[in-house]
Amino acid sequence: MEKIIDYINGELPEHEKRAFEERLALDPELRAACEEEKALWNLMAEIKAPAVNEHIKSRFLDTLQVYKEAAAPRPGFLSRLKEIWNFQPQLKLSYALVLLCVGLGTGLYLNRKNHGEIARMSAEVSEMKQMMVLSLIENPSATERIRAVSMTQEIRNVDDTVIEALLSTLNRDPNDNVRLMTLEALTELADNPKVREGLVQSIVLQTSPIMQSAMADVMLKLQEKRSVKPLQKMLNRDDLNSTVKDKVEQTIQEILI
Amino acid sequence: MLKVKAGDLDRMGLLFERHYKPLFGFLYRMTADRESSEDMVQNVFLRMLKYRHTFKGNGEFRTWMYHLARNVLNDHHKGNKRHAAPLAQEPGDVADEAPENTMEEQVHLLNRALNKLSDENREILVLSRYQELAYREIAQILDISEANVRVRIHRAMVQLKSAYLKLAD
Fold first, then answer.
1. Whole-complex ipTM
2. At CA B17, angle to CA B15 and CA B20, rounded to 5?
3. Could you confirm whether domain B1-85 is CATH 1.10.1740.10?
C-alpha cells in the first residue's frame, strides 16, 4: 500500500514500477485503493492558491536597486589612487615624459657642445690676441706698442713668448711711456717666476729716472728681496737723479725690514 | 545564481521573475496568509542576496530557495502564533459553510482536512503535490533520506485521507 503514492508520483524505480503494475493487474483490492488515492491526489490539485499580487515584483526590483547601491564597495585609498592613475591618459603622459627627456638630453648635449665651442673660441681669440701683441709690439708707433702692451691684460694665459716680448720691450723700448705701461702689465703677471726674474734683472738696465723710480715702487710692492742688490748697484750710478737716489735708498730699507 | 554570487546582482531580478510565483504558492499554502506570504517572498530573495556566498553551486537553486524559505517560515511562525491557519482559505471564508456543489464541497472538505494536518505532514504534501518537487529534491530541502521522504509522504496521505473521511461523514 505504501507504494501507491510513490507509483502515482512516478517515484518508483523501473523494476519496482513493473512489479507494482503486475500486482495491480492481478489485485482488484490494490487497484481500488490505488484509484482512491489517485482521486484524492487529483482532488488536491483543485485546492487553488490565490494569484500572487504582481506589485511584489516591482517592489523587489526597487529593493534590489537600493541593496545594490548600499552594497556597492566604497573605493579605498589605494583603489582611488589606482582610479586616478587609470584616469590619467597614460600614453600621453609617457609621450610627454619621453619628450621631456629628449628635450633635456638635447639641451644638455648642446650646452656641453656650446661650452666646448666657447672654450675653443676663447682659446682662439686668446691666441689671436697674443699674435697681435707680438705683432704690434714691434710697431714703430709708440701708441700701437702701448696698445699691444695693454692688450696683454685681456689675455687669460699669457705664454712665454709674450712674456719675453714684454720683458724685451721693458728693457729696450726707447719710449718711457711704453716701458712704463709694460712695467705695469708685467707687475700684473708677477706671479710668474719668469716675470719676477725678468723684472729684477731689468732694474740695472733702466736709465730713465721715471723708470728707475717706477721699478723701485714695483719692487717694494712685490717685496722682492732679490731686487736689493740691483737697486744698490743702481745707487752706484753717477748719473742717478738725486730724488731717485733718495727713493731707492728708502725702498731698499723698506724691503729689508 | 552563480553569476549573482560572482557579483552580478542584476541577475537576481531574473531569478525573482522565474521563481516568485511557485515560492509564493508554497508560503501561502503553509500560512494561508497572502500579505505575509508576499512579504516572505521578498525576505527569501533578500536572504539570497545576503547569503549568496553560501550557495555552493553544486546543488540546485530550487532546493536552496526552499531551504531559505523554510527558515523564513520558521521565523514567521516564531513571531506569529497563528501559523496553523487554514490552507488556501481566503479571509471571510468560513470553514463550516460548505458549498452546495459536490465537487466544490469535496475540495472544501479536503482543504479543511489538509489544515488539520501537522505542519510537517502538510509541508511534505505541499512540496510534493503543489511544488511538484521530486523526492530527491525534497530530501535535500528537509535534509532527510529519500526513503524517509517516501515514508513521510505515505504517512501524510494516510492522515489526510483519514481527516477527509471524518469530515465527509
1. 0.82
2. 90
3. yes
* B161/A5 touch (CB, cutoff 8 Å), yes or no: no
**Interatomic CA distance for residues B34 and A209, integer angstroms:** 138
**DSSP assignment of A141-197, as one string?**
-HHHHHHHHHHGGG-SS--HHHHHHHHHHHHH-S-HHHHHHHHHHHHHTTTSHHHHH
Query: Domain boundaries in chain B?
Result: 1-85, 99-169
pLDDT by residue (tens digit) across A133-146? Answer: 888 888 888 888 88
3-state secondary structure of A64: helix
pLDDT tens figures, B51-80:
887 777 656 888 989 999 999 999 888 876
CA distance A159 to A167: 12
Q: What is the chain A residue with the closest CA to B31?
A: A49
Residue A239 and residue A129 in one domain? yes
Evaluate whether A165 touches A192 at the Cβ level (below 8 Å): no
Backbone CA torsion sign across B141, B142, B146, B152: negative
- Among B26, B53, B87, B107, the strongest candidate for a mutation testing the A interface, having the largest count of A CBs within 10 A, is B107
> Which residue in this structure is represented by grid cell 707680438?
A134
At A224, give phi and psi (nearest 5°).
-90, 105
| Residue type (1 letter), B52 | R
Q: Which domain holds residue A23?
A: 3-41
The predicted structure's pLDDT at residue B109: 92
In chain A, which stretches have pLDDT less than 70?
1, 71-77, 80, 83-89
